[in-house]
Amino acid sequence: MGLRSYFDRIEPHFVKGGKWEKLFPVYEMVESFLYTPKTVTTVAPHARSYIDMKRIMTYVVIATIPCILVGLYNVGFQVNSAIATFGPSGWRAAIIEFLGIGFDASQPIANILHGLLYFLPIYITTLVVGGIWEVIFSTVRGHEVNEGFLVTSMLYALILPPDVPLWQVALGISFGVVIGKEVFGGTGKNFLNPALTGRAFLYFAYPAQMSGDTIWTPVDGFSGATALSVAASDGYRELAAQGMTWMDGFLGFVQGSIGETSALACFIGLGFLLLTKIANWRLVVGCLGGMIGFSLLLNLIGSSTNPMFAMPWYWHLVVGGYAFGLAFMVTEPVSASHTNLGRYIYGALIGFMVVMIRVINPAFPEGMMLAILFGNVFAPLIDYFVVQANIRRRARRHV
Questions:
Q1: Of 51, 252, 300, 334, which is the most exposed, with the fewest CB atoms less than 10 Å away?
Q2: Modified residue FMN phosphoryl threonine is at which positions (predicted)?
Q3: Helix or strand or coil: residue 138?
Q4: What is the helix (H) or strand (E) element at residue 255, kind and residue range?
Q5: pLDDT tens across 235-247, in order?
């Protein structure tokens, strides 16, 4: 008996009237993950498209692959480089020693496998805990389990520090899924990005584990600041004195969250999303325009007390989470503006806000996460004013 036949045989037990009808969302989740849904539109009008929810979410996950690979390598590279000075510690180092892989930072396989030991527990915890919440809400409401959580779980895992405690991972994804999405009705009805909502909750609830100089390379005794922290305290020119070049930030060999460090990997993913038309290019243009324009203005104004005023736009582009947020968060279609003009405004608002938070607000050397959530809140209002302006313009045209 084939797998398709097996699903067809047990389906009557899960549909309405079956003995397990309350578990239909679980059955539908597994079936639609393995097969294209067999339901079709039976009445006119018919709309045919090769794009469905599963394909969209699959494309976004594919787009994150470059960030995953570079992230695994960079985490392992940073850890193995620190171990050369401070020595190995922890259960991950014990596994590496048991497997005989070694801690040579010049060996790509050793770096990737070591990075995998940090990423996998975070991702598995995210999938299990977040998936449980998805199933609970879908079962209670009688809705299908949406594939959107596959994207949320991947993005959430990639924006966390490598040594974040797993109980905090579980707490953050719970907050992001429940408060950031499900209380508003689920996928497609949320106005906040769930992955960023969970990350923001952890940032404010447990700042010691989400910021500072000791969380990015989890080796006992090691302390290393991110590029933004160095630039905020001593100016971006100090980065070169500490051995961090612009190319390091572009390629991703710097301190940071697991998947955010490589601007190149983020832009490869963004290019894929633009080519497949999953991402709207107007959001990208707006965000780049807002960031570049406000950076240039601050460069012209200058400051004798704030070294961040001098940071050029091309440094803002490759440090922190700007590139990752631009590729995967700004372009997220549900929480962004839906009108064409509104997309320009929404993107520009985020680009402006990220620079303002990084430069002018001394409490947050990073700013992309807060800027995107700020943009999420104002997206409906932006669309409202754009639509009202169109209505007034058309009304004047027909007077």
A1: 300
A2: 226
A3: helix
A4: none
A5: 888 888 888 899 9
Amino acid identity, residue 244?
M
Whether 203 is covered by a domain: the verdict is yes
pTM metric for this prediction: 0.87
Spatial separation of the C-alpha atoms in residues 343 and 331, rounded to whole Å: 9
Judge if 182 and 287 occupy the same domain: no
| Structure tokens given for 1 | 């008996």
Widest CA span of the chain, in angstroms?
81
The answer to whether residue 1 sits within a structural domain is yes
Nearest to 252 by CA among 219, 224, 244, 310: 244
Question: Cα separation of 147 and 31, whole Å?
Answer: 12
The string of pLDDT tens digits covering residues 42-98 is 555 655 555 666 678 889 999 999 999 999 999 999 999 989 888 888 888 889 988
Burial category of 11 from C-beta neighbours within 10 Å (exposed 0-12, middle 13-18, buried 19 and up): middle
Q: How far is CA 60 from the centre of its chain?
A: 11
195 closest CA partner among 130, 289, 256, 249 = 130
Is-contact 353 374, C-beta < 8 A?
A: yes
Residues 5 and 126 in one domain: no
Residue whose token pair is 């633009």: 274
What is residue 213's DSSP assignment?
S
